Input
Amino acid sequence: MKSNEVAHHIDVYSIFPDYVHSALQNSLIGKAWQSGLIEIGSHDLRGFAKDLHRTVDDTPYGGGAGMVMMPTIWGEAIDQSVEFSKAKIHDLIIPTPAGELFTQKKAEELSRAEHIIIACGRYEGIDARVSEYYQSQPNFRVHEISIGDYVINGGEAAALVMIEAIVRLIPGVIGNPDSLLEESHTLLDDEEALLEYPSYTKPAIWRGLGVPEILLSGHHGKIAQWRLERSKERTRKVRGLTRE
Ligand code: SAM
Output
């Protein structure tokens, strides 16, 4: 299948494109990629540098430690990605610990995107004007996203987390779509999402530990009720569920 026939296209820009590429070739994401359900491009940001040393960063205005990634380089990379895309709207994700927290809801929103561009920062991050500029472009939606309240060294691992969460929601990627319905964080209505109930498989006894009797009963209604109660119990304990 040619790239312009693929409904979901993800372009990742990074100074470590091989890291991103090799990680994404595995598992369900790799299969979806091979089958043509999605297309993922992993691009070398340094290819847009202008000097012999392929520099992509410079010292911060106002002083301070570390280096900042240059907007000129990022602008060229993102514009090139748009040039090769047929999408009308481009969703630009900028991973940053200072962004909105990534959630299942955000993954669902992004699973409907036609063209996602992920700008993986390094050093102290990307010049703030990159986000500002593309926010002002009518064909762009910009998402500054944090994968959690901690700092990692670069946006690549964050990009991989987001791609995993987004791509598995694209119809056809997961063999049995029912397995998406009862997962932790899945919002089935406007209520709070629940965490998943505990799961068990064979053997029925392992190191002296048994499986809850109800799961062996074959009574689907009672099993569903038991699972809902365990979900609520777990959510209350771990996340402070407020509804009964
Ligand atoms: N100086 C930045 C700050 O304090 O907000 C941290 C920069 S961090 C060392 C370098 C890059 O790693 C960021 O530009 C971003 O791409 C990525 N990164 C680090 N922590 C992240 C997180 N929690 N979520 C998403 N991306 C993160």
About this structure: The chain has a mean pLDDT of 93. Residues 95-98, 120-122, 124-125, 146-148, 150-155, 158 surround S-adenosylmethionine (CB under 6 Å). Residues 29 and 167 are 7 Å apart (CA to CA). The first strand starts at residue 8 and ends at 14.
